């Protein structure tokens, strides 16, 4: 199997719009709060609508009017509006949803997502193309690591898996010539810092 032909797959699987759903599902899985079916489905529905379905609908709208040209590739000019919208949707999720009142872990996970969107937008303003894919996958990996500490569960396999996925996503972005190494590094730093910044409040 030619690994290079497989690498683009990771850019789609770990696209930024899917990360919130992955994090939400993983949290309920390891915390065993999934037994509360109503809470699980309600939060998963909210997260799916605001972070996946609505962004996908807007993407196809932007694609039809020529505001963006690709699902996984975007130049600096094409990034401004989608990142701004992402920040607004994260704000709506954490500000107007009462579902996270008893789940601080998810609240701060999404607050970290909002913070990373702001940092990504600032990067665009200063003409720097930080990797949104690396921001996303590193945010998820850091969140899983934090859950392992907070819930005192040895999520070694999950953490190891995420480290490998970080490598595959980075390789994918380089292979697709979407980013330079420094853009990947800065994206990774934004993803990690955006989650670590709120550990004080819930760990």
Automatic annotation (TrEMBL):
This is Phosphatidic acid phosphatase type 2/haloperoxidase domain-containing protein. It comes from the Bacteria. The lineage of its organism: Bacteria, Pseudomonadati, Bacteroidota, Flavobacteriia, Flavobacteriales. The keyword Cytoplasm does not apply. The chain crosses the membrane at residues 12-34, 40-62, 83-100, 106-125, 132-149, 155-175, 182-202. Keywords: Membrane, Transmembrane, Transmembrane helix.
């Amino acid at each position: 199997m030619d690994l290079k032909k497989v690498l683009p797959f990771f850019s789609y699987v770990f696209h930024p719009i899917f990360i919130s759903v992955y994090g939400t599902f993983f949290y309920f899985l390891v915390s065993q709060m999934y037994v509360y079916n109503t809470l699980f489905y309600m939060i998963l529905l909210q997260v799916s609508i605001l972070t996946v379905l609505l962004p996908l609908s807007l993407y196809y709208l932007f694609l039809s009017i020529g505001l963006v040209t690709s699902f996984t590739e975007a130049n600096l000019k094409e990034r401004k509006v989608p990142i701004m919208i992402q920040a607004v949707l994260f704000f709506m999720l954490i500000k107007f949803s009462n579902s996270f009142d008893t789940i601080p872990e998810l609240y701060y996970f999404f607050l970290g997502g909002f913070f990373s969107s702001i940092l990504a937008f600032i990067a665009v303003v200063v003409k720097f193309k930080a990797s949104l894919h690396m921001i996303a996958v590193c945010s998820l990996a850091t969140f899983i690591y934090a859950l392992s500490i907070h819930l005192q569960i040895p999520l070694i396999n999950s953490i190891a898996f995420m480290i490998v996925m970080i490598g595959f996503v980075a390789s994918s972005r380089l292979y697709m010539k979407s980013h330079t190494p420094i853009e990947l590094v800065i994206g990774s730093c934004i993803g990690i810092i955006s989650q670590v910044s709120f550990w004080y409040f819930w760990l």
